[in-house]
Amino acid sequence: xxxxxxxxxxxxxxxxxxxxxxxxKRGLTLRETxxxxxxxxxxxIGQKNETDREQETLLRRMFxxxxxxxxxxxxxxxxxxxxxxxxxxxxxxxxxxxxxxIAYISSEESxxxxxxxxxxxxxSPAGGEPVxxxxxDKEGRAQ
Amino acid sequence: MKRIYVNEKWCLGCHLCEYECAxxxxxxxxxxxxxxxxxxxxxxxxxxxxxxxxAVNCRHCTxxxxxxxxxxxxxxxxxxxxxxxxxxxxxxxxxCVLVCPYGAVMPAPDGHAAMKCQLCTDNLMGEPNxxxxxxxxxxxxxxxxxxGV
Amino acid sequence: MNMFIYPEYEVxxxxxxxxxxxxxxxxxxxxxxxxxxxxGRMIADSEKCVNCHRCVCLCPTHALKIxxxxxxxxxNANWDNQTINEVYKQANSGGVLLSSMGNxxxxxxxxxxxxxxxxxxTNPPIDPLREPMETQLYLGKRTAKIERDEKGKLKNTxxxxxxxxxxxxxxxxxxxxxxYNAHESLARAAEELGTYYNTGEGGLHKDxxxxxxxxxxxxxxxxxxxxxxxxxxxxxxxxxMGQGAKPGIGGxxxxxxxxxxxxxxxxxxxGVDAISPAPHHDIYSIEDLRQLVYSxxxxxxxxxxxxxKIAAVHNIAAIASGIARSGADVIAIDGYRGGTGAAPTxxxxxxxxxxxxALAEVDQRLRDEGIRDDVSILVGGSIRSSADVVKAIAxxxxxxYIGTAALLALGCHLCRTCHAxKCNWGIATQRPDLVKRLxxxxxxxxxxxxxxxxxxxxQEMMGGMGINSIEALRGNRLMLRGxxxxxxxxxxxxxxxxxxxM
Lengths: 143, 149, 502
Prior knowledge:
- Chain A is of the alpha+beta class.
- Chain A has one domain (11-134).
- Chain A has helices spanning 11-25, 30-37, 42-46, 50-62, 109-115; strands spanning 73-78, 81-86, 95-99, 102-106, 121-123, 131-134.
- In chain A, the strands form two sheets. Chain A has a three-stranded antiparallel sheet with strand order 1-2-6, covered by helices on one side. A three-stranded antiparallel sheet of chain A has the order 4-3-5, with helices on one face.
- In chain A, strand 3 and strand 4 form a beta hairpin.
- The longest helix of chain A is centred in the first third of the chain and has 15 residues, at 11-25.
- The radius of gyration of chain A is 16 Å and the shape is globular.
- Chain B contains five helices and eight strands.
- A two-stranded antiparallel sheet of chain B has the order 1-8.
- Chain C has two domains: 9-95, Alpha-Beta Plaits, CATH 3.30.70; 165-496, Aldolase class I (TIM Barrel, Alpha-Beta Barrel), CATH 3.20.20.70.
- Chain C has 16 helices and 21 strands.
- In chain C, helix 5 links the parallel strand 11 and strand 12.
- Classes of the chains: A alpha+beta, B alpha+beta, C alpha/beta.
- At the A-C interface, helix 4 of A face helix 10 of C.
């Protein structure tokens, strides 16, 4: 009904089209898109500050059918950046790390350590919490 | 204390409570064996007047007139507030039957003593059987403040 | 002379158990039971019995049962007993046969020919006792423009929606068709559950305005009890175009049921029959419907969602598509098994289509046309269990209306004699001595119990599928497989056969 025809029948394909629909066609930010695809639970939203609560509630009310409840852990690449996002229950793992100006995203820390054993920072984002790495900030300078 | 209260708004006049009372105090575990072919002597009675129905039983008055008027000391009010009758002490004068303003004390079928509702503390039911079997929640067993009689 | 018709059901009394307490006699409004002082025994007249089981339930010694009579005409695969009896009844009376509650005929029940999926290995099931399992949802339009304020935050451009804690609402049952105490039970249960009950077309009793935020008020063809305060008091407004039990015909509440209270609530004279016309006389097209939808929105300052309720009939998908374009926020579809307080038997038993097929068709059509998010879909017309709810949502419904199941929770035993007005359970009656048999303190609790139990079961089934939001289950037909269905049925339902892979 959103005008996409799935040919691969995989969740990756579905999520790709959802992101295309929400970001490109509807004009949501990546962070807002993450709150649609891996929306926080209503109970969690209820505990957030007023602005976040209103924004996330609104997103869930507008796009409830685009919530993806199964296990997934994705990396979205786009011009100038990467977004890591895992499902809201954290059924699939996501690990992020940094070393200088290099960002690492993987499903296992061991994979990152294989490439760079000496990391500045390594962390596991919560389920549904997007991690966005961008090459340039808004003014276009290198970060 | 927890007492039995009746809400006539919900009392249907089905008289089930009378039969459940009679069964509870029969000492038997089979309701058919207890009640079939016998006159019943319930300690709760349903008053019917047209569309109004109201089950009446002992209110366990705070200052129970039956206890005060008992000539043999058979009636007493326990620490739990329940007004009880000791059949061994009762001489069958039936003064209590006469003085009860609610008609809630009655002669026992054997004629030698009075009987009354003791909130099923004197049988094996554990909780008032009329309350448990009232189909419409018209009879309730509960604590109400400021409603001591 | 009337032809004698042997009663369909017989009262059987176990004389060994009967203690002649006469509870059955006092509780039967049909005067089936009688005490014979000469023999000291109870006597029953099965001819008057409607098989409501009130006596069976209240008999303290369980001495009573009702059995299907084994009296039979000569066996005939074409002319069964009931068909023959109905001919006799009509020859006796010359009248239209009346019935109540839903279509009892042995048509296929498609709910029972669909099976639900569960996760194994590739996608883990979720334990609802350990993890959140969301059954909360919103009903209404989801299409809204993305607009931002000066800080870049999203503005709330959504049309008003209804928030539900459970995907279950109580369907429309009017005050008049059911009793004051039944309405109070539904209203209080809806409030406690965080869902809605529906006034039906009989107006809203003045005592129940306080439950307004959990009330859906109906505007039907008779316009009974409709005025500004009625619309204002409610959480949503439902335009009733049709009813599953009797598509294409109106309603008729006999004058005997128009008590002083019902008369005041419906704003009609006491004791005079209340006729709901078959059509709304101002609605002969989708354009006309749009006018009423917007009149109601205008009257309530665009603060309340408008539901349009239709019966499931042959061309349902096209009709629903029109309704989705009429400005309605929610479409309610009522299947041919939906209940009623009274309907002509032939209509109830032969008109309309199953809700399962209607729902699947409507959901698919709205998706194909890209307007599925313009409306929510509510379905009713025999949702019998939590499994039916799960299947309905997987087929594309947003939430379900339950009517018959709610009445069963209140004590109804589906004797299907509501039209007689002598409901022994205090539900479908206005007789004060019968109405009082339904104590709302007990009634509302039983409704809360029922829906709470269903919700637990829904959560269990969702968890099994690995889906932790009811809104993510909606329209997920891959979660269903058919069994014992032919190709046409599978195609309409949009599901695969059991055993078939993606």
